[in-house]
C-alpha cells in the first residue's frame, strides 16, 4: 500500500514489515499512533482477505493457476474545502473490475465476472458496503482535511527545475536533442521545443513525469532532427509554476562549427589583436635598439626566440573563442 497526499508520498504498508509507516514526521504527528495502529490491523485483515478474494475471482474467469493480482484504489478529494470525486475501485490483473458509486450506494461492475461480487456485496455482504460508504463520506475526508491543514507548507513548496540540453550525433547523420528537467516540485510541468526562437515543435519522445526519491520529479524530452534541419537553432522551453516565465535553454550546435555572426566577431577581434601585438613589437624593438651610432650594428636576436614569441602569440590568438 502507498498513501499519497496530492503527489507527496505520506505512508506505506508492506507485507514483509506488516506495519503502516508514515514517511514524514509531520504525517505521524497528524495521524497519531492510535490511528496508525488501527490501520495496521485493518491491513492485516485485508492482506489475508484479498488472497481469498483473488482465488474467487480466478474461478470467475475459469483460471486454475498462474500469477494474478488484485489492486485497490481508494481516495477522496477536496476543492475549496468541498468534497468531490470519492473513489473505491478494484482492478483484477491490471484491468478495471468493480467500483463503488457513492451517490447511489451501489457497486458498478466493469466486466461480466464482476456481477457476482456486486450481487454479494449488495445483499449478504452489506456490512462491507456500509463500511466503504462510511469511510468515503467521513473518515477519508476528515483525515484529508487534517493532513492538508498540517502539511500545507510541504504541499505548497515550489522547487524550480534544473534544465540541461544535450546533443547526440548518430553515425547515419541524424541528430537527437535531449532536454532534461529535474528536481522540480510540484508535479505539473510542460516541456516543448522551439526552433529559431519562434516555431514550437512536437517532441519525438518523452519519459513522462517521473518521481525522485526526495519527492521531487524529473522529465526528459527528445527531439530528432535531420542534417538538413541542423542549420536552425533549437531550444528547450520549460513552463513550471515555480518559474516567473517560461525558460529557454538552447541546444549546443554541431561540434567545430560556430554561427556566422560569432565567427565574424572572433575573426575581427583576432585581426585587431594581431595588429596591436605587431605594433607593440615594432615599438619595443625601436626603443630597445636606441639611437644608432655610425659603424655600429646592434646585436642580432636569435631567430628561435622570435619564432617562440610569434608561436606563443599565435597560440593565444587561436584560443580566442566564446566562453561559457
From TrEMBL:
GO CC entries: external side of plasma membrane; extracellular space
Keyword rRNA processing: no
GO biological process: immune response
Transmembrane residue ranges: 262-284
Alphabetized InterPro entries for the sequence: Ig-like_dom, Ig-like_dom_sf, Ig-like_fold, Ig/MHC_CS, Ig_C1-set, MHC_class-I_related, MHC_I-like_Ag-recog, MHC_I-like_Ag-recog_sf
Location in or out of the cell: Membrane
Domain of life from the UniProt record: Eukaryota
All copies of domain Ig-like, residue ranges: 161-249
Disordered: annotated segments: 288-324
Name of a matching Pfam family: C1-set
Keywords: Disulfide bond, Glycoprotein, Membrane, Signal, Transmembrane, Transmembrane helix
Family: Belongs to the MHC class I family.
Protein name: Ig-like domain-containing protein
